[in-house]
Each structure stands twice: as structure tokens, then as C-alpha cells.
Specification:
alpha/beta, D-Maltodextrin-Binding Protein, domain 2, Double Stranded RNA Binding Domain, 3 domains, five-stranded mixed sheet, 11 helices, 23% strand, globular, binds the ligand NCc1[nH]cc(CCC(=O)O)c1CC(=O)O
Length: 308
């Protein structure tokens, strides 16, 4: 290879861990030296907004804007992201061209006050900035006090230590990538606390038509993860253009079969609309889109009213 492949990433420890994992897989797949890949750290608008919920500041796209500009300008060749942070619509000219094998998608409860979320005393504070997590907590425990908790994984853990909250919920996948799995107090089941679409899957974004990069990525792409993600992202796209609806969705692929379940709920957790579908993995996007259309039709317009 003549030139180095430039890997763009945010600068958080989690983002860097994901970029390093991607580079390690590329090195192993191609027998190239590490120096053939350069990691380029890019600060995004999302990294600068710390005082407001992201849904107010402009949504998920805030974490990808500057990185996508660098991709389109050719300053980087690929961008590594957490799939769950990726908006469903990408800028013209870019695509998600590879998914690494998915990590465990479950949610982890972390607390020094209780062994499980069910054991927290009434009125205990649980910190989260995710609308889905807030709504699921309220559904499970309407008597808890849900508090806004922004910042990266380390910041949130520090806030727990400082007593800003009695517990929090984080993705196991992120904790594992940071080597912080030992902090998990309780792992929640996929049914009791369903993950965000895309949770646990690292994705790689690149320029459409960049064949050289496409050939480099092909051996590290995991087909079942790509199919599960196509389903989950189609579900999300069918339901929500922004990130103001609490949405969960999770697909698994076993050979030719795909099994999906998803739900939306109101922010206070009182109303819920669930869906379960299965079919051929090759029809992943169709299954997700139909599940989303079904939920949208059954939930009705009132479901989305008053809080969007
Ligand atoms: N929004 C932050 C974010 N984006 C991806 C992960 C975890 C890693 C993953 O789901 O792949 C996290 C942290 C968290 O939710 O605990």
C-alpha cells in the first residue's frame, strides 16, 4: 500500500477504543503494519455541548457532522462510530460500509446503593440522558427520580461517585471496550430493558464508490451484524426522523433467520407499543421497515403528540 489509510474518530476514550479495535482487525486481516493506518482524532459539536440534553441541542448528528465533513473532504478515508449514535440518514456520498461483530448488546445497571434497579429505595436518583433509558426506568419504577446525566462514560461514573445519582445505566459494550466491565452491578435482560437500535455494534462509514477502501473493509465486515443492523435501522427510520421518541429495537441473526423485537414508549413510560417479527435475514431492512410501520399505525398519532 502506497499511502496510509486515515481512520477518523472522536477523541473520547470509548471512540478511541473503537478506532483501535478497527485498526487491529485491519492489521490482522491484511497482514499490514500498524503504521499503514493512521488514527485521526476529530472534535465534534456534540463533544462541546455538555449542558443540555442532546435532543435539545440538535440530536445525534452533532457527533458525526465534523467527521463526515472530513470524510467528504478526503482528510480521512473511513470513520469509526458506535452504530447507535448514527442518524438513519447519512449525508449524500457516504454509507455505512462495514460492521464489526456485535458485542453483547445488554444494558448494565451500576450502583453502590442497590444490587438491582428493583432494589433502589423510592425517590432514589437514577442518572441518564437517553430518552429511551429514562422512559424505561419510569416504566419499571415510576417512584424513582430520573435525573439528567450527560457526558462520556467516565464523567457519568464520576458523577455516581460524587453522589449526583444513586445509580445509572450504561451499555455493557462500552464498559467492556473501556475495560470497565468489573464496575457492573447488574446486567439487565434484553426483554426487561431493551437496547437502542444499533447498541453494541461498531460501524464504519466511508465514501460511496471508494473501491480501494471497500476492498480493505470487506474482510472485517460481519455479515450477521450487518443484517441485524439493517433491520434495526430500518425500524428506527420508519418511526423517527429525530431522536425525541424513546425507541428500542434488537435483531438477532442465526443463519438465514432473523428475529426482531422493538418498541416505542411515551417519555413517562406509561404507554408502550411493542412489535415482534421474524423472517429471512436477507429481508432484514424490509422486516424492520414493516415492524416500524406496524408500530406507527397501532400507536396512532396521539402517541406521538404533545411531547415531540
Ligand atoms: N451514546 C453514547 C454511547 N454510544 C455507544 C455507547 C456504548 C457502546 C455501544 O453501544 O456500542 C455509548 C455509551 C452508553 O450508552 O453506555
Amino acid at each position: 500500500m502506497q499511502t496510509t489509510l486515515k481512520i477518523g474518530t472522536r477523541g473520547s476514550l470509548l471512540a478511541l477504543a473503537q478506532a483501535h479495535e478497527t485498526r487491529a482487525r485491519l492489521v490482522a486481516a491484511h497482514g499490514l503494519p500498524e503504521a499503514a493506518f493512521e488514527i485521526v482524532v476529530i472534535t465534534t459539536s456534540g463533544d462541546r455541548v455538555q449542558d443540555r440534553p442532546l435532543s435539545e441541542a440538535g440530536g445525534k448528528g452533532l457527533f458525526t457532522k465534523e467527521i463526515e465533513e472530513a470524510l467528504l473532504d478526503g482528510r480521512i478515508d473511513i470513520a469509526v462510530h458506535s452504530s447507535k449514535d448514527m442518524p438513519t440518514a447519512l449525508p449524500d456520498g457516504l454509507e455505512l460500509s462495514a460492521f464489526l461483530p456485535r458485542e453483547d448488546a445488554r444494558e448494565a445497571f451500576i450502583s453502590r446503593k442497590a444490587a438491582r434497579i428493583a432494589d433502589l429505595p423510592a425517590g432514589a436518583k437514577v442518572g441518564s440522558s437517553s430518552l429511551r433509558r429514562q422512559a424505561l426506568i419510569r416504566r419499571m419504577r415510576p417512584d424513582l427520580d430520573v435525573v439528567l446525566f450527560r457526558g462520556n462514560v467516565q464523567t457519568r461514573l464520576r458523577k455516581l461517585d460524587e453522589g449526583v445519582a444513586d445509580g445509572t445505566i450504561l451499555a455493557l459494550a462500552g464498559l467492556k471496550r473501556l475495560g470497565l466491565e468489573h464496575l457492573v452491578t447488574d446486567l439487565m435482560s434484553l426483554e426487561a430493558f431493551p437496547p437502542a437500535p444499533g447498541q453494541g455494534a461498531i460501524c464504519i462509514e466511508s465514501r460511496i464508490g471508494d473501491q480501494q477502501t471497500g476492498a480493505l473493509l470487506a474482510p472485517i465486515h460481519d455479515v450477521p451484524t450487518g443484517q441485524a443492523l439493517a433491520c434495526e435501522r430500518a425500524f428506527l427510520a420508519a418511526l423517527d426522523g429525530s431522536c425525541r421518541t424513546p425507541i428500542a429495537g434488537y435483531a438477532t441473526v442465526d443463519g438465514e433467520r432473523l428475529v426482531f423485537s422493538g418498541l416505542i414508549l411515551t417519555p413517562d413510560g406509561t404507554d408502550i407499543c411493542e412489535v415482534a417479527r421474524e423472517g429471512l435475514a436477507a429481508d432484514a431492512a424490509l422486516i424492520g421497515a414493516e415492524a416500524g410501520a406496524d408500530v406507527r399505525a397501532r400507536a396512532g398519532a396521539e402517541f406521538f403528540e404533545g411531547w415531540s
